[in-house]
Amino acid sequence: MVICLMASLLLVGSVSAKDSEIEKDTFSVIHSRKSVKSFTGASVSIENLDKIIRAGMAAPTAVNKQPWSFVVVTERKQLDALAAGLSNARGINKAGAVIIVCAEPEKANLHSKDFAIIDASLASENILLATEAMGLGGHWIASYPYEDKMKHVRTVLGIPTDVIPLNVILVGVPTGEDKPKDKYQKDKIHWGKW
Amino acid sequence: MVICLMASLLLVGSVSAKDSEIEKDTFSVIHSRKSVKSFTGASVSIENLDKIIRAGMAAPTAVNKQPWSFVVVTERKQLDALAAGLSNARGINKAGAVIIVCAEPEKANLHSKDFAIIDASLASENILLATEAMGLGGHWIASYPYEDKMKHVRTVLGIPTDVIPLNVILVGVPTGEDKPKDKYQKDKIHWGKW
Fold first, then answer.
1. Which pLDDT tens digit goes with each residue over A38-68?
2. Which of B69, B125, B169 to mutate to test the interface with A (most CBs of A within 10 A)?
3. How far does Cα B57 stand from its chain's mean position?
4. Are A194 and B160 within 8 A, CB to CB?
5. Mean of the per-residue pLDDT values for chain B?
6. In this model, does residue A122 exceed pLDDT 80?
7. B132 phi/psi in degrees, rounded to 5
8. Distance (Å, rounded) from C-alpha A130 to C-alpha B78?
9. What is the mean pLDDT of residues B122-136?
10. Which residues of chain A are within 8 Å of residue B58 when distances are taken between CB atoms?
11. Which residue in A80, A82, A94 sits closest to A158, CA to CA?
12. What share of chain B is helix, strand, coil (3-state, %, to 5)?
């Protein structure tokens, strides 16, 4: 009976380990995602960053145009250069990396800036959720629609002028200080009609 | 030994059942999400729709302004009225419900239409992922930026003129015909610099 119990626990143990490897469930990740401002300063691996951006590229786009590109920065010197022109980038000094999600109107449905921005936004939300799912922290720092911030990001990273650097997403190991907010408001849902 | 194996299987079985209840893991949901055009015609419960929209409201917004509202339609007559002005709403005849995610510039950071559209887009992506996580199918039908489609949606649902009906998201039980696309493109990632 003891052996039996041990065998059972081993099996259960292995299932749990596998589940943990394939990451957390969707609803708990959606509701535990928060804008992380406090990072430990630890780095994020290239492999993890690639996995996060791969999730970004799984987002839908209008007429499947995928009008986006992604710039990834991990070097401290370059992160500091970005920070110099982004007054809103609190936490970047301890982030392990940043991902700049770029919208490309020329590649979008109807060459529309509107569609490019929406499509790049959906990719960005996937990136934030993937980051949370891996136990990392993310934070969308706005570049668009601020002309000065976009110009700065373009200059530091060599981004062409017809490409829109939508945001600078901080990615890093969270200290655990930042907590999610419950933003559910029943009266924001209209059933049947406005 | 037979009893031992049975006990092990029972324990493993119960773990799996629990995992299934708390929904699927984030990465598999992100990568299995697809735009569903083929629905069975089955209805979607109010409880599930509320859970899906709750996930939408967990998305981040600029300066936490949450400049959004959601209109939910489940009545066939109203769905048909919406379909009449949406040439792009393939599949709506068999969808169980639609969710219209509305952007409210007046409530957004800096009263900016840009931020309102981005924030409502992030909520919409959460809605699409939550739908997939529940084993349902979703499909973003564009309303914005088409003036004629927005006008039609506003008229059918009584949405104020200063509110932007961003999309009409079909929600329903998928037949299983629609499959996800692998959209990963390595050359869309720029490491270090554009």
1. 999 999 999 999 999 999 999 999 999 999 9
2. B125
3. 12
4. yes
5. 91
6. yes
7. -60, -40
8. 36
9. 97
10. 30-31, 33, 180, 183-184
11. A82
12. 50, 20, 35
In chain A, what percentage of residues exceed pLDDT 70?
A: 88
Mean pLDDT of A102-122: 98
State the pLDDT at residue A187. 98
- In the prediction, which pLDDT does B60 show? 98
pLDDT for residue B24: 79
ipTM of predicted assembly, 2 dp: 0.89
The per-residue pLDDT for B23 is 57
Question: What is the rounded radius of gyration, in angstroms, for the C-alpha atoms of chain A?
Answer: 20
Lowest mean pLDDT segment, chosen from A2-6, A100-104, A177-181? A2-6
Q: Which CATH architecture has domain B35-173?
A: 3-Layer(aba) Sandwich (3.40)
Contacts of B65 in chain A (CB under 8 A): none
| Cis bond before residue A60 (omega within 30° of 0) | no
Q: Which of B65, B76, B102, B132 is nearest to A190 (CA)?
A: B102
* Two tokens, residue B174: 């998928």
- Cα–Cα distance list, A152 to A94, A148, A181, B182, B188 (Å): 20, 6, 31, 33, 21
Please tell me the distance in Å from B29's CA to the nearest CA on chain A: 7
Which run of H or E residues covers position A171? strand A167-172
The residue type at A66: Q
Contacts 24+ apart (CB under 8 A), A153-159: A153/A82, A153/A85, A153/A86, A153/A100, A156/A78, A156/A81, A156/A82, A156/A85, A157/A71, A157/A73, A157/A78, A157/A82, A157/A100, A157/B190, A157/B193, A157/B194, A158/B193, A158/B194, A159/A71, A159/A100, A159/A102, A159/B194
> What pLDDT is attached to residue A190?
98
Confirm or reject contact between B171 and chain A (CB < 8 A): no
DSSP string, A101-136: EEE-GGGSGGG-HHHHHHHHHHHHHHHHHHHHHTT-
Of B95, B70, B94, B91, whose CA–CA distance to B153 is shortest?
B70
| B24-64: pLDDT as tens digits | 799 999 999 999 999 999 999 999 999 999 999 999 999 99
Q: How confident is the model at residue A134 (pLDDT cuts 50, 70, 90)?
A: very high
The token pair that represents B142 in the structure block:
């564009």
